[in-house]
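Exam review. A common question shows you a sequence with its structure tokens and asks you to describe the fold in words. Practice with the pair below. Do the first one on your own.
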Amino acid sequence: MSEYAKEAAAAALEEASGENIQHRVDVPPPGGGRLDSVIRAGSKLSAVAGTLAALMLFALIGVVLLGIIGRTLRITTFGWAYEISGYLLAGIVFMGAAYAALTDGLIRVELLTHRLGDKATGVLRLVASAFALVFGAVLLVLLWRYHSYTRDRHLHSESLLETPLSIPQSVLVIGGTLLLLELLRQFVQRARTLRADFGSSPKEKP
């Protein structure tokens, strides 16, 4: 299992370099309005987040192996390893979510889209993007409130590290923000594609 995780992390590091992203997703071209500039900036940051998620995965592997070695050799139990592993796992999920959306790596079921025409598929994908955008916005608001609650009350973990919980929770807010920007990019991209498809439809002669 660890070998598979190492291969996945290495692949994420290679792809997060940005060399193949332009070929895999339709990031808005240079120029355009303010919205396109925000989307392009978000896509670049999502690529960086993918690299950070891969590094966190390597760190998680190292922490787990260190804990196993310590217990096997009966040197120490590394009580902090469980806490750090939880923080790294949360960082991998939230920092990697935006990168997965950027590279079109999120899982989706295409049972209906295979049976529909191009325009109907475009409408269905646009509606799905709208729902995902609303979900991402609600998730970001809840994450921000959760982080603010922890920060204002100066809450710490109950372990020996006594980690200020606002520090690892800030990764959730950053990841949620990048995910929302990627969902916005998908929605704008699909809306423009759908408008172009309907605009290019041949007009019926009277």
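Now try the second one, then compare your answer with the model answer below.
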Amino acid sequence: MHALSSRATRAPAALGARSTPSCLVGPSPLLLLAPAPAAGARHHRRDLPGRVRSASREEALRSLEQFSAGVAAATATAASPSASPPPAAPADDAAAGGLRALTADTFWPFLREEAGDSLVVVDFYTQWCGPCKLIYPKLVALADALAPRGVLFAKADCNAEFKAVGKALNIRVAPTFHLYRRGVKVAEMTGAHVDRLQALVEEQLGGGAAADGTAAAAV
């Protein structure tokens, strides 16, 4: 009985021993199948953020140093006395091979003083005048041809700034051409006719007959 009892008593213990390892004691079978982490894995994961932060800080410092160097270089270039200023625009078309532009302030001083005894042809025009634009290249060519003979060409824009002078000169149409000597008007014509203008100039120079033009645009 005791032996049976002993066997009966030991049986549950043996049954319990068979069921205990998978439930209460030791790791789960799934955990037993999982590969063990490397010995230094936890150390690597613990150190990684620190290294990332260190690398990011170094990159930020390098970027800041490069930016500071660029700003310093740009400032030095701007402050350098050797930096060339932008070229100034010519005062009028004469600097580019065209006709000299006269304003209300320079009109009479040029005719009475600067031009001397030369015959001066003044082209009175407007920005919106079609015939004025068409004749202008021919005027430049005529001025070049007559320059060796002492003839000067100039132009005056009959805009608001020149209105008082234009009114005093009785400019009513564009283009209008006046010929001057020492500030005194000696001839005039209207219309975009280069051949007639040339004949008028030749008459003042001592040859040819004057002829008035007719085609003109109202000022």
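Model answer, second protein: The radius of gyration is 51 Å. Residues 56 and 62 are 10 Å apart (CA to CA). Full marks require stating both points clearly.
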